[in-house]
Input
Amino acid sequence: MTWFFFCYWYEPDAPHDPVGLVRIWTLADALSNVGDRVTVFPPRYRSALAQRICTVIPIRLIHLPLIRPLSYALLSFVRGLMQALVTRPDIVYYRWMDSTHALILAKLLRVPCVCEVNGEPVPQWPGNQRIFVRRFKHLLTRLALKRCDRIVVLTEGLRTLLRERYEVSFDRIIVLPSGTDVQRFVARDAVACRLELGLLPNRPYVGFVGSFYRYQGLACLLDAMMLVKRVCPSAELLLVGDGEAIEELKQQAKGMGFDDSVTWVGRVSYWEVPTWIGAMSVCVAPFRGDRGETSPVKLFDYLACHRPVVASAIPSVVSTFTADSGVQLVRPDDPRPLADVILALLNDPSRCAVLGRKGRQFVEERFSWTAIVERLRQWVGKDSGVIRHAHSHVL
Output
């Protein structure tokens, strides 16, 4: 099967390298690993220049407000047409980006189009859009989703949202959450990881990996860690990532007199993440209650590394992680229960080991990328006649 992938993502620190494209890269690599031909048309960020097993055609952007997404839409459409003269796709796959150029390309080429919806197509962020802009975006979304052949969503909540808000029938939507690379994310000795990273080998580390957006609930985590430190003074907080909330979080930690117990790692490469997770005693995902629909990618990586996880009981997490998944759920936005569960785990290494084994088994069975891409291939190909043996072009 031959795929064209289109994806655009913007963060405040663009054009350096937005992390929002990680799922697309992982999905493209996983499809390539089973023998499919994949061509990705990403913005020309640093990640687009790395050596990959899929074909990458970076799209240069004009880095000006409003012009940036327009330049991506126009130039990626043209490059897609040019590439189709060399290799005609069986499937055009694109991540929703307030643009229909990938859908239009698929219609011109007369091939099926799959749209991936990662969150609310028109997010309910207060004060950042005029009402007529929001209405136009809702109209554009409705038109596009009704004309796509298939739609991929990351959670059951998003599936319901598309049905209720945009009148998309359930039979055209598949829930395909993110997964993890179970070959790369594996159990590692915590002391060895800490020594490799220059951390104190015998300290208990509570850790988070991800982007520092307010919806991640890191302010609540800092409050919880103050409670943890009162009972377990040796506990340290390990924060891996960066984002818009970094400065206010640092100010909060400093104001609490807690800054010396926080290691602000910053962003690291994807290849380094398993080592940082391996250094952690307990991993956390303290999402705020108003987070909305999300596919909690970090939880899959934590669990694949045999680490116990404490996460907020928001709907998308509750619907994904069962009682035997290795995840301990707590009420969001409340530091007390978060601190209590963290302390209970730090004081019970045998319990942590049991949760780690359960978590690893859970993701191996349900959320490895190999299993996820096979579901995707079978689903998009069942009515279109494009499904073939994974290695048919090699054979």
Observations:
- Confidence is low (pLDDT under 50) at residues 387-395.
- The chain has two domains: 2-179+369-381, 190-366.
- DSSP finds 14 helices and 13 strands in the chain.
- The first strand starts at residue 2 and ends at 6.
